[in-house]
Design goal:
Length: about 700
């Protein structure tokens, strides 16, 4: 205990010294730079940068105190809104064009090298927001000291040479900051993921009340009318409707273990991921999981450079203040990422999991609630933003593979499961409440009905050796997917009959296709993948591997290719077709058309609205040895492909640590038919309608629309 007190005292001392220095910088009068009383004569553009960032840091130090002394908890709603807006206003779209967080603006002011780095530095200072609210003074301190170290490099250089410091010196400051603090930062992140006593968010959720929505601001996330109105709506629902939502969510999780033949009784921890506004539903979910013997970990989506990976958010979060800002900084690690750093990160990641291995062993996997309905986002690709070099891309791929294997050693894929469900937010339109009710209906469709219809489709596919998919109209899809050959059709099956368990809502049959013999072109006119828009997306496959790709998002074809490689291929030169599926949820499709929300649906629902194709790992990644059976008792045997089988020789070559579903909507589908060994073609879908006998029920939503 004495050592901890000494550590705390040391942190307090350093924090006070840093606070004094930050205030000095913030109080510099830009109009008096030529005054001989100003100790350091930096050029005005640099003085302005350091002053403004110092002012921002001062605000966060004051915010820390405001939270610490209880003022936040007694503040009225309007005061909380005012505080929240000030924290994020600099990166909101209207202010972003002249924000140092915008690499284009920073480069215009400071030049390419210094502009990118200083934009990066300010972005990392913005992570102080969450540490102020979580009362993590040490996390604030190390970042403030980083800022001061960079400032000192500038002041020293101008005092000694009259010039800016060497860029390499600044780069090394960043590099060693990230390297030196990786151990503590990654260890804390792993603890948040595994240890239920790290309960910052859980405590707020448990205390939340519908009559007092001030709690939404206690998280430190950006809050808009979306979150406030969502919370109001969820708190206004009847107990019956709330139970239907939460119980479907948690029961799907439980059934996932049953269907997967996995023992839930050995597990003690569930990771809940959600978007703010659904606290009432999460309270009930926490209670439901407690009855299963599970405690929650609810950690925040990564706020800092130590944990971010592209634009993908894993954890809980509020509104995204500016998706372009998020996109601009998705590859900031290009500033410091090299092989030595990669090895260092893997080393500390392993040490962290070793430290918490007992908690990792009882970790059951994630339960995720996604939201949809926001205005679709099409990013601007900026040359000023950091991008990984080809060598760094290879290292990034290697790190993803190695870290995935490492995590799987401690949280074994064959012993964990997951579930995921999605609901709309008010931004979806004037019919929000109506659409919300429709989504509840979609999420709770009669799984027995779908199970029986899907079994009819599977029985047909089990007799085929390949499937031919062809688009209609302007859709140029022409793709043949090779299927696994069954050795014992009486006891084995190729496709999994997916109803409402891990993947809510109901509505698909899926398999791991045979790569060899899978050839052709996959095309979609418009699709949103991980909240990014793709227009005229075309993927060419040869023997199941991607050989070419394009989209029409940019005037320059090269920009389109880079966009796809970065955000669908995740820097891999190629990926296999890891999954082929047929979505059967025509109800969801019709609802999307009725309310004109197809472009706002999450992939979770969109993948059920037509055939879909996943690039990357199979659905059985890291759990291929677990025996899985369909409701008819047949074992699903098509779980591997020639890539995943390499795990028996070299694990690093078996997995790609990504899985992106691309769906062809029914109205772009001309034909989907099973082809038997003798060439017999059995149509399953023609011109967007199910034509296979026994599937007539799936066409009824079209007729009722």
């Amino acid at each position: 205990m004495q050592d901890n007190k000494m550590d705390t005292a040391f942190i307090e001392e350093r924090y006070e010294l840093s606070e004094d220095r930050i205030k000095e910088i913030a109080e510099i009068n830009i109009n008096s730079l030529a005054d001989e009383n100003v100790s350091v004569q930096l050029p005005e553009n640099y003085h302005m940068y350091f002053k403004r960032v110092a002012e921002f840091i001062c605000m966060l130090m004051e915010e820390y105190t405001w939270v610490a002394d209880g003022s936040m908890r007694t503040a009225e709603l309007e005061e909380l809104k005012e505080h929240n807006h000030k924290l994020y206003e600099d990166i909101l779209p209207k202010q972003y064009e002249k924000s140092y967080a915008n690499p284009a603006y920073a480069v215009a002011v400071f030049g390419e090298d210094y502009g990118r780095l200083l934009s990066f530095l300010y972005t990392e200072m913005r992570s102080l927001i969450v540490y102020a609210y979580e009362q993590k003074k040490e996390d604030m301190l190390i970042r403030i000291e980083l800022f001061l170290e960079v400032y000192q490099a500038f002041t020293s250089a101008y005092e000694e040479t009259g010039k800016q410091p060497e860029f390499q010196e600044l780069q090394q400051i960043i590099y060693w900051f990230v390297s030196d603090y990786s151990e503590t930062q990654i260890e804390e992140r792993v603890r948040e993921q595994l240890d239920p006593t790290a309960d910052f968010a859980t405590a707020i959720i448990k205390e939340s009340k519908g009559e007092d929505l001030r709690y939404l601001y206690y998280f430190g996330e950006y809050i808009t009318e979306n979150e406030l109105r969502t919370a109001k709506h969820i708190w206004s629902l009847s107990e019956e409707k709330l139970a239907l939502m939460a119980d479907t969510f948690t029961e799907g999780y439980r059934i996932g273990f049953v269907v997967g033949g996995k023992d839930l009784s050995k597990k003690k921890v569930v990771n809940i991921r959600y978007t703010l506004g659904f606290e009432r539903m999460m309270k009930r979910a926490i209670d439901n999981f407690a009855h299963m013997g599970l405690q929650p970990t609810i950690y925040r989506a990564a706020p800092s450079l130590f944990h971010r990976r592209g634009t993908h958010l894993i954890g809980y979060f509020g509104a995204i203040p500016n998706k372009q800002y998020q996109y601009d900084h998705k590859e900031d690690e290009a500033l410091y990422f090299d092989k030595m750093f990669m090895n260092r990160r893997l080393e500390v990641l392993k040490a962290a999991y070793e430290q918490y291995k007992e908690l990792a062993y009882v970790h059951a996997g994630p339960a995720c609630l996604d939201v949809f309905g926001e205005t679709p986002f099409a990013p601007q690709s900026k040359t000023e933003a950091y991008t990984l070099t080809q060598e760094q891309q290879k290292l990034s791929v290697a790190y993803a593979s190695a870290s995935g294997q490492l995590v799987n050693e401690y949280i074994k894929g064959e012993e964990r499961s997951f579930t995921i469900i999605a609901f709309p937010v008010p931004e979806i339109g004037d019919n929000y409440e109506e659409i919300f009710d429709e989504v509840i209906r979609i999420n709770t469709l009669d799984y027995k009905l779908y199970q029986n219809i899907q079994q009819t489709i599977i029985d047909t596919l089990d007799k085929a050796e390949k499937v031919h998919i062809k688009g209609c109209g302007s859709n140029c899809t022409d793709l043949t997917v090779a299927l696994y050959h069954l050795a014992n059709p009486e006891k084995e099956t190729i496709f999994e009959n997916c109803v409402a368990d891990v993947n809510i809502p109901v509505g698909e049959v899926f398999t791991s296709p045979v790569l060899e013999g899978t050839n052709g072109t996959l095309y979609v006119s418009k699709v949103f993948l991980n909240e990014l828009e793709y227009r005229d997306l075309k993927i060419v496959l040869q023997d199941g591997m991607v050989t070419d790709y394009s989209c029409s998002n940019f005037e320059n074809d090269a920009d389109g290719k880079k966009y796809i490689k970065d955000n669908i291929l995740y820097h891999h030169d190629t990926l296999p077709l890891g999954e082929f599926a047929i979505g059967t949820n025509t109800t969801a499709y019709v609802v999307s058309k009725r309310y004109d929300i197809a472009d706002k649906l999450p992939i979770l629902i969109a993948e059920k609205m037509g055939p879909h194709f996943a690039l990357g790992d199979t659905c059985y990644s890291h759990s291929e040895e677990v025996r899985v059976y369909n409701p008819d008792g047949k074992e699903i045997v098509a779980k591997d492909n020639t890539c995943s089988l390499k795990r028996n020789e070299d694990m690093s070559k078996a997995y790609f640590n990504c899985h992106t579903d691309i769906t062809i909507p029914y109205d772009e589908l001309g034909e989907l038919c099973a082809i038997q060994g003798d060439g017999t073609r059995i149509p399953i879908i023609e011109n967007g309608r199910f034509v296979l006998a026994g599937c007539e029920e799936l066409n009824k939503p079209f007729e009722m629309n």
